[in-house]
Protein 1
Amino acid sequence: MHDNKRFAIVLTHMGRRKDIVEMPWLESEYRIDESDWLVLSDDGWRAVANGDPTIWEALERKLLVGFYLSQPQLVVVIGHPSGAADDDHVEQRQAEVRGIVQRIRALLLPAGV
């Protein structure tokens, strides 16, 4: 569908400065040529991580439609600190990423997560 290009769906949230973080490693390390980004607010990110039914169902529908239309090879979940540098905050963000990854894997989509 993408002329032998590798396609990914990227799920992340706004950075500290409310901008999108550049991630050249996505292209270089994972050989992703094209991607569709879903950028959540911090509140939306936490709602997805906590399994809020309304937000999660909307994200699930978005992923399923995205898979039908673009057939990505990879779903990338990227969390990053939103200001505080203490270990507890970093561990919280890592736990959020793990939770989101587990929920997406449970959908049994035909791509790596």
Note: The mean pLDDT is 82.
Protein 2
Amino acid sequence: MRNHKNLTFWDDLIKALVRSYRFASSLPPNDQFALGAEIKRQAVRVRTKVVAAGSIESAVESVNALDAAYQGLKEIASTIEFAVELGLAKPELVSDLLETLDRMSGAVFAYRRSMT
């Protein structure tokens, strides 16, 4: 069993997920239901899937959990990009967050590859 808190990217991942969650909360009330809820749901999902990957005995199931975490990070980034396209956020205000999410998805993918 692996401890998720020992992952080299864990702290950065949590910071990115918290920033994403807070971004979702900052959206206008009309957009918090659709876009905000999606970002928040995926942020929680990514965290739980990475934790699950470290606690699952089956390598196949661990890889599947990390695949879901990777997809969740990509979905968060895509939803934030859509918010920018809709004019709900300024690109310069989310560019660092999007870069961090991209880096974190790369870290999760590398972790996944290390398990196969």
Note: DSSP finds four helices and no strands in the chain.
Protein 3
Amino acid sequence: MDISRRGVLGGLGAACAVGAVGFAGAATVTDGEAVGGLGGGSGPAGGSSEEGDDGPESAAVDPDAPFVARVTGDDGTDALLFDASDLDRVKGVFSQDGEYLVQVVLSEAGIESFRSRLDEAGATDDPAAFVVSMTLDGTEVRRVELDGETVDALTGFDWEGVLTLPFGEERVARSVYDRLADS
């Protein structure tokens, strides 16, 4: 399975494609091909998508990798949203518009758990009151504020569980990719 399925959740502040839905300015959900050509080809692990390069490598995810995303709310809610065991594939590192991107694909069971956990936390009722915090080895590497439009897209029928995680520093993106990839 490659990471070129519909429903890419993408980068902070990036509306990378026509029809993209903002994730509180922190991600996009598209209906069609992956944003900006992401998801194509394979090449060296952690490679770039520069011309002449086959692109980043796609790998199975190590289910024991220390990567966790939690959803927290203004009301004190703090719940697991997903972790490495909910993921199927990882692909990276892409460089786009000054950010370094890593794509992950939730497994079928991971998609259902993601949606259930989002709903159980209350984020489907009041998205603006929630934040997603992603940690690697217990250190926060990404924080994303939720919004209604994105939560609707993430819980909609067309979203197939592809997430694009943007990072401002290449070393952080590479670390996330390297720790998630089952080598």
Note: The chain has a mean pLDDT of 74.
Protein 4
Amino acid sequence: STDSRIGLLSVECFLYVAQESQTIAQLAQKTGADAASVNKAIYPFIPKLDKEGYIIQPRIGLLKRKKINNQRSRHIMLSKLGVKLLELSTCDE
């Protein structure tokens, strides 16, 4: 998207998830954005299913969704690539 607010919201959501897994509702509360905007912001980073049921991998898969303890909402957490990216950024210090 060319809308810079979406890009900044994506980064903000990623940083919150980097601290600990979050639900969409928690991310919406922390960012002050509505849940639909949060979903749109993290959409480029999460694998999804198409209409036929095939997995569409994101270009940069930094996040993943995981259902925890039969809860209705899913937690957004770092993928292996997201963890690796953060580890690399802390090695430079």
Note: Residues 24 and 31 are 10 Å apart (CA to CA).
